[in-house]
Amino acid sequence: MRAARCTIVREWQEAGIKTSLGNEWTTRSLKVMLCNPRMCGLRELDGELVRDMDDELVRGQWKPIITVEEWTAIRTIFDSRKGYFIGRDMKIMKPHQPDYRDHSYLLSGILRCGRTQPDGKPCNTPLRVTRKKGVKHHSYACLSKAEGGCGRLSRRGDLVDEYVSEAVLAKLEEAAFTASAGQVEWGKEDQLKDVVSRLDELTAQWNAGNITNNFFFKLAPGLEKEIARLRAESANFAGSAKVRQARAGADVADIRRRWNLPEKEGGFPISRKRAYIREALHTVIVYPASKGPKTFNPDLLYPVWRED
Ligand SMILES: [Zn+2]
């Protein structure tokens, strides 16, 4: 929209042209005006153009500024940009994350409704954040029926946040542990043992006088060199495995520490935590709680891990 501001909006601002409410024009108000079907004499109600009984578009009594075709073209351009970042040159860039507009909560757009619908299929609608006046914590709730959800599922947000955070951290710790544990095995112990026993055997034969000096000194140095090489490799491996293990452990320990720290004390911003969560899992399905006492039951949260 920068291009628009540079031309139309700036010119209007400089010319002192105001909106119908007497405000300064902005890129946003220009966009709202251009998208308004009144521009071409039509009217919109709840996102739908108003039609008469014969399904014909109802035309207003006011004089259209542009034709319906022109307006449709403008609207199509704006609609095609919805959900995308727009570059300086008005080029359409990469799409927004599904949760682009609602990133102030840990799990908005990540949780999904697990309630079974009358048709037997899960609702599966992404839950959104709701806040009630006078209630300290937020909630995650399914959308209303009109908005495409079932409207019948809601869960305490702070407890879900805490549970899912813990599950993701535990998953990271587990992954770090397996990754480092998998590399502890050097895997060449048998090879080293074999060379050592060949040298031992050769030495025993030589001591017993069964082989000549010439033969012994031709073979022994090669075996000794091979043993030295394998031993060095083994020591080297053990050392670096320890370092790797320590590093992986320290990384996760640091993530855990910063997860719960305020941002100004070096804690992660919510966006960073959301990135970790998104990396670890596809979604968390929230199943409806059974009737009865309202206690939080983590068994009703089902994380769908990425690697599973
Ligand atoms: Zn639902």
Walkthrough of the structure:
This protein has 308 residues and is mainly alpha-helical. It has seven helices and ten strands. The strands form four sheets. It has a three-stranded mixed β-sheet with strand order 5-9-10. It has a three-stranded antiparallel β-sheet with strand order 6-7-8. A hairpin with an 8-residue loop joins strand 6 (128-130) and strand 7 (139-141). Helix 4 packs antiparallel against helix 6. The radius of gyration is 34 Å and the shape is elongated. The structure holds zinc ion. The site of zinc ion has 8 residues, from loops.
Number of strands: 10
Runs with pLDDT <50, length 5+? none
Strand fraction equals 5-15%
| Chain-averaged pLDDT | 83
Q: What's the total helix number?
A: 7
| Overall body shape | elongated
| N- to C-terminal distance | 42 Å
Strand arrangement across the biggest beta sheet? 5-9-10
| Main beta-sheet strand count, sense and barrel state | 3 strands, mixed
Helix content: 40-55%
How many domains, in number, for the residues? 2
How big is the Rg?
A: 34 Å
* Elements, N to C (H/E): HHEEHEEEEEEHHHHEE
Main structural class? mainly alpha
Cofactors, ions and other ligands in the entry: zinc ion
What layout of secondary structure does this protein have?
Elements: H1 2-15, H2 27-35, E1 44-45, E2 48-49, H3 68-81, E3 84-86, E4 92-95, E5 111-113, E6 128-130, E7 139-141, E8 154-156, H4 157-182, H5 189-207, H6 213-259, H7 270-280, E9 281-286, E10 301-305
Parallel strand pairs: 5-9
Antiparallel strand pairs: 1-2, 3-4, 6-7, 7-8, 9-10
